[in-house]
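G.,

No rush on this.
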Amino acid sequence: MKQLALIALLGAAACGGKSEPPTGPGPSLPTTTPDPTATTEPTPTTPTAPPPAKGNPREDLIPRSVLLGNPERGGVRLSHDGKWISWLAPVNGVMNIHVAPVGKLDQAVVVTKETVRPIRNYSWAYTNKHLLYAQDTAGDENFHVWRVDLAAGLDKATVADLTPSEKPIRAEISDLSDKVPGAVLVTLNDRNPQFMDLYKVDLATGKRELLVQNDEGYLGFYTGAKLDVRFTQTKEADGTTVMWSTDPKAKPTAPGKLVWTEFQRIPFEDADTTSLLGLAPSEKSVYFSDTRGRDTGALVEYDLKTKQQKVLAEDPKADVQGAMIHPTKRTLQAVSFEYLRESWKVLDKSIQKDLDALAKLDGGEPTVVSRTLDDKTWLVATTSEQKPQEYWLWDRKKQKGTYLFSGRPDLAKYALLKQFPQEIAARDGLTLVSYLTLPAASDPEADGKANTPAPLVLLVHGGPWARDAWGYNPMHQLLANRGYAVLSVNFRGSTGFGKKFMNAGNLQWGKAMHTDLLDAVAWAVKNGVTTENNTCIMGGSYGGYAALAGLAFTPDAFKCGVDIVGPSNLSTLLATIPPYWAPMVAMFHTRMGNPETKDGKALLEAASPLNAASAIKKPLIIFQGANDPRVKQSESEQIVAAMKKAGLPVTYVLFPDEGHGFARPENNIAFVGAAEAFLSAHLGGTYLPLTKAEVSASTMQVKEGRSGVPGLDGL
């Protein structure tokens, strides 16, 4: 069962919220050799808390490598037969897949050979002798699908590209099924860069069979248990989603050309909060996350013959989010909703005692990561806002958990901080679900109430059609450890809170989406979290745009800004989207503004920080990946050029081997080191200076404004 989620235009980049147990480092970003003749470098102010001396770091400051470097282990999975356990772990600093017999972790063998880019996610095929992962080059997001073959033994594992091509292409895994264990469905745009065709690929031979030749702009495919194609969807110019169905028994009119019939039309107001989740076990009905006739996305079962629908689960404040599905019966067993924190509604009482017991394992929140096909063994990760993932094997018959390991054992000796959900009222009455982390000195009772104010970092999520969530967040922990209060706000347009909240963000870039952030800062001042004019705005992707907009449109609202791969000109952003996003362009136009109309173009120009760059008067640092396919390098360079032309200071840091965010831990650590030094100089917390080893291990290039980052001189 597969959910076709709304694709966030800008993604989470370096500053995101909740995710599945992480498989790689946390946040990340870039730098270059500065021009020694430049005269536009910002002059740092004196930090309120002096930085530690080089070579003598304060013991209470958590090292960047511990929080943000590679985990010791991550991405843990069970094979479907329960005989093998796998995980990602660094080999010469690069995350690779390790496999061991269950119960014999000391016999693990590295089965992949990546030497530059980390593997960030992977899956077991149902053969139990193949693993699959995607890999791009230097962050360009031109992913290929790779197969690891374990048939000859772990020590003789071979790796092959299932989607080879001499030209840039993008391939994605679409589906796997235990009913067809020897195949994987892959979408691929090697025929037409704009459209993704669907192929069935034989795992043993790599031979492809074309299932759908996509000449109509289809967005995603839904398949049955036997990997037969059943549904797809398209977008119309007004943002309407049209769902299409096909009869799996009907013969194609030509290779890859199926006969499609219109199934349902979903109006724009519901189009991105309503989605087909997949087929029910009988394949006579389908599951939807559906906001039609209601505000929040309910779990609905729709009978394909009678066209009757039944609501299975709903929440008045949150959309249906996740699901537990039986590994062979494909029945829905539980679904989750997340408003302030995640909660589960159990539909199948046979798993209730398991979930109750898992909640008591170690006090953390459990996530069932893998289940064997016989459903006797579960792999479980537990976590909380103060603890990264710890992994357990759960024996369902014995109702007993066996502890495996921690993903980041080195963090155990540091005191991590609590994170507190907040409901903040926007000026028009909308409720903004937000998350606050306070430094220990401000909140010694750890009750979420500030005894003394601290400088505030407003950490803005990417997307913007995404959300922040409660849980372990390494950027929150690092910034709070350095003396800052950290606030993440789900501004209007964020997902998960119903269609009214999401649609309230339409055409509001630089407008109400921005005033939501200002209202959150005002709340923080009113509640003693911080003081007036003592906030820095920081974010990745859309959050980077928010940082630029904050400094350009409200130049007195923030003390400084940190832009991570953020767009500066919305018109050029939309003109340079990846070709395979072409079928979704209607969604961008209806939610952001249509550059093909006079009013839409004017709206985009007015919301572009580049056009107000001369108004920026507070310190700004910009981080960019040179190979970013979503927010091109030119988005950063054009605002840097505009500021230099106006004689304004700016620091610009480039990573030549990264894309939309920073995957390599060496670059991630260098980015965060530069960012925390910048914050210390302009907002006043403390920091751990970058070392020569950290800088030389990265590809960071400080292109402009080296003096805006204390401690870089001489490195």
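When you get to it, here's the other one too:
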Amino acid sequence: MVLVTVGSIELVRRPHSFLHSLRFKLLIASLTLLVIPWIGYLYLLEIEDSLRQAQETLLLSRAEIVANLLNDRLTAEENQTLLASDDKATTSLYVHPLEQAPVADGYPEEWGNLITQTRRYLASETSTDAVSFELLAGYHQEYLYLLMLVSDTTLTYPIPGGPLTSGDHLILALPGSVRKSRQYLLGTSAPGWIRVLQTDNLQSETAIRGEWQETSTGYNVELRIPLAMVDRGLSLAVINKDNINDKPRGIAATSGWQTNANLARLVMPSLPSEKLLRGLDSDSHRYTILNRQRQVVGRHGDLPKPEPSQTTFTSRILSALLVERPISNEYKREHAGHMDGPEIRQALNGRGNVHRYRTRRSQSAILSAAYPLYNSEKISGAILVEQTTHTILFMQQTALERLLTSTLLLFLITGGTLFMLASYLTRRITRLSRKFSRTVSQDGRIIGPVSSTTNNDELGELEQSFASVLQRLQGYNSYLEAMASRLAHEFRTPLAMVQSSLENLQADDEKAAQKRYTGRALEGTHRLQLILNRLREATRLEQALQGAELKTVNMTELCHSLCEGYRLSHPSIQFQCQFTDTHLQAFVAPELISQAMDKLVGNAVDFHTPSTPIHIMLTQQDEKLFIHITNQGPPLPEGMHDALFQSMISIRKLNDNEPHLGLGLYLVRLIAEFHNGQVMAKNTKDGVRFNLALPRVLSTARDKNAEFLTG
């Protein structure tokens, strides 16, 4: 603890610890920023729940709308197709609509993005790697197109002109007229166009065309079949032989091919409802039409796959913090011809429902909404609408990562900034306290130089205010010291005259001498009375300012009238008056302005060079009026331009018979400040000019005057 004495006041300065400093308090305040991520996390969880519920509701509503559209558009024949029951036809092959017909040349490039929709079939023999193929089906106008990507390590072609069954070949089965299917052999003795023979009579079938092309993993077969021959049933089988005339090493087939019932059921989007589905959003939704046996009879759209997210430090933290939502059943419906699920079963029972499925290697889920389709108030099938939730999950995780990263960064920046700002303010306040403590002595005197900073903030204004107060106090102290000396000088001469006159009067008995001494004593008392009158005049003026009435005055007429009065009162002096406008008005007290001009003109008369004129001018600049009074004569001493308007300051000769207390220009300054103006003095080329500046409009002058007089 340090005891500091300033004048008669003792100040106790205690050393500040870090826990009581501004830096620590601002640092604690910055910790409140950590509440932001926690509140944001809770808010995002609520938003996620709301988004999940909203997504489920919207998806079920979408399924209901699509179901109502299908109910209105489906014909009786199409509904009968949905109602058709065939428990054995569990195998289905989806046929894609094609915008353009591909050329049956054995190359898959023309199938474009559909190449990813192939379905793989493996051999049914013991050696499953003997042969396999991927099948992709599509239709355009009146033809069905099939693309087979066969994987076969050993290619065996039949002998030219020999039976196709002696080498690698294909069996195509189409619906027959009776229960038995129509079967065709497809093969070739060399890459190129394939031969198509009926198995019954080995006659060529020219309606079916195709081409065989070798690949690095086997061969490709591309076929074109008229839709009229298919009748929504088809089977393909690949027979693999390693040597001619050997038994098949493996057979891979889409289904059985002996009877019509064994054929794979073709699911073709030929219903008008499929055209309606094409107009729906297929980028983020997938639409599937199911019959009563839960078989796929129509499909449109695809589910977007979530992009692999980058594993970062914040994502690992969020993965540990995020609550994992329980999801039943794993999603296994890709390329499925038969679907099942709780929402599908409830839809086929007459009630729409939404179910959530989880996916492998992803935190997102798949929402599946099913709604029943009706035919004459009888359920004919269901519409299934699917959508992934990885968008919501990605948005949540991205928002949380940004929130956590931004908050940590904001905390570091804000906390560090507040700490540095507190340190900076603490140093400035401490420096300010020490600076002004050293300026004032223990007895209250200002012993050091008073300087202010150039900073424009609040602390800078505080320091400038302290410096201004100290400067005014320093000037007031100097004024008091100078006033005592000046008053002592002014009173010394008349008092000496009175004292010496009374002493001589007492010692001399002659009447003439007594009369002379009495006159000198009266002269001394007259000078003392004059000094007291001028002091009283200054006091009365300060009191008169409080009750002065302001009004709009034509300053041109006022100055012209005063100028004529000066010419009459000083006939030996030439006054040159110049006015730029005849209607310059201001809101002033005319008697005070007249008194100020009397003081300035009297000062100019006292200091002007004989036989030289005194100039009085009235000008206007911006929103101010300027009264210029110029005289030719001795210039002002250096450094006296501003001090001249202080109380008890005079530059007249001390041996002048008249007492001069330096109150005249001080009163002019009071009058100018009362009108929110100012008075200035400066040296000209051959004399001195006084400028009295007054604002033209002073609507709030009375409030400002009251503030000026009380301050």
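The two ends are 37 Å apart (CA to CA). The domain at 475-543 is CATH 1.10.287 (Helix Hairpins).

Enjoy the weekend,
O.
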